[in-house]
Amino acid sequence: xxxxxxxxxxxxxxxxxxxxxxxxxxxxxxxxxxxxxxxxxxxxxxxxxxxxxxxxxxxxxxxxxxxxxxxxxxxxxxxxxxxxxxxxxxxxxxxxxxxxxxxxxxxxxxxxxxxxxxxxxxxxxxxxxxxxxxxxxxxxxxxxxxxxxxxxxxxxxxxxxxxxxxxxxxxxxxxxxxxxxxxxxxxxxxxxxxxxxxxxxxxxxxxxxxxxxxxxxxxxxxxxxxxxxxxxxxxxxxxxxxxxxxxxxxxxxxxxxxxxxxxxxxxxxxxxxxxxxxxxxxxxxxxxxxxxxxxxxxxxxxxxxxxxxxxxxxxxxxxxxxxxxxxxxxxxxxxxxxxxxxxxxxxxxxxxxxxxxxxxxxxxxxxxxxxxxxxxxxxxxxxxxxxxxxxxxxxxxxxxxxxxxxxxxxxxxxxxxxxxxxxxxxxxxxxxxxxxxxxxxxx
Length: 443
Fold this sequence. Notes:
- The chain contains 18 helices and 12 strands.
- Helix 14 (299-307) packs parallel to helix 16 (329-337).
- It is of the alpha/beta class.
- The longest helix is centred in the first third of the chain and has 28 residues, at 62-89.
- It folds into 3 domains: 54-85 and 97-103; 115-145 and 288-443, 3-Layer(aba) Sandwich (Rossmann fold), CATH 3.40.50.10680; 147-245, no CATH class.
- The strands form 3 sheets. A 7-stranded parallel β-sheet has the order 3-2-1-7-8-9-10, with helices on both faces.
- Helices cover 48% and strands 14% of the residues.
């Protein structure tokens, strides 16, 4: 069994695309040329001392000698390469040839993966990215900059930076989940961790406690934006620190505010300012929009959309995570112009304050009502709506519903639910479903 595993591991080195065989062939050719040159030198030194007769095995047939020296040479080269791998890679990986091989194989596999652009924000986008990163390194996450609540909102108001929270979540999702630095990036300081109010210096203490409750990653990105001089550079450098598989981009660099028109219990129309206020006032959302509305998209985000193989919107909050990206005019136009397969991933469960009572078709129709067209050819929805869970008021698993006549999209259903958290998607199930869908669309 152990021998078979070693043979399979050795054969894996010959897998196309690893960029290994060419260097092995070059190495073999170099050794052959070196051997030829050495043989010419020996010929010039003839007659050789008598012990060379035994050293070169001249007492056995020439064919047998060639076979013995060939096997011995190959064995020595392989042993030397394995030892060199251990010596050079020991500081970075476990000193095990199969581990090194698996790392190279997986790296090349992800490097050749499809170009996927994921659009959204919040925890839903992080769930998607966490699954995709195991299959492709060509991932671009386009993130909303309309967040104005919690730690992100406070940093946005006090320091004038774009809200870092969703960027932090995406960077952490694309990084190595087992790395200590990733856990540190997601660490949130307790409310009173940075000092308690002091009677002797109340003003100074208030300033100190104003930063309590922030996550380390939010503060890191904010500080990095000061050091590098721009928010987008700060996100890039933060991504390098965590060695993320992919990249995280803002939909726009403009300071925008998400507005909403709500219908309350008395059928009156209320206008709400700020993403964090929309879901907390009750009522039904009629529409959301950005102020200002004519804002340019981040150029790299547009380029990523035009070059993508697959564009995915969702999962995530329909009105406060997905639509704020799509309402940037250049983003929507780039999706229309792109030749990529375009998929909208509907949430597993409804969301209080946003989509209470919505079916899958209601989600899609809300997108069309805001954008004027069906941007997405495919709608991917969860089929497992029988999983039990203690749902809070206003939260239920999303049913399919009925598509309107003339709908330009196709609904595909699969079991996508996370058994441990039935109100959200399973990362691996979702990633496999999307990549299988892309493969079927291309075939």
